[in-house]
Amino acid sequence: MNAIKNELIKKINSYPDSYNKKEMLDRLVMDTKLEESMKEYQENGALSHDEARRMIEKRQTALRSGKILL
């Protein structure tokens, strides 16, 4: 997982300055925090795998659309 994130960070940093790199990196951080939270819930038996995945997807959609902030 970390290797993938490192590749994404390199790719984002290679974009021209006209791109909003900070926003892209912020979203990557938010997605990472969401996945870690859901894994923790799942490990504690509070959620099934499917429930965790649905919650992650729902939250990511809301974050990307700007409806909620962390």
TrEMBL record:
Protein origin, superkingdom: Bacteria
Official protein name in the record: Uncharacterized protein
Source species taxonomy: Bacteria, Bacillati, Bacillota, Clostridia, Christensenellales
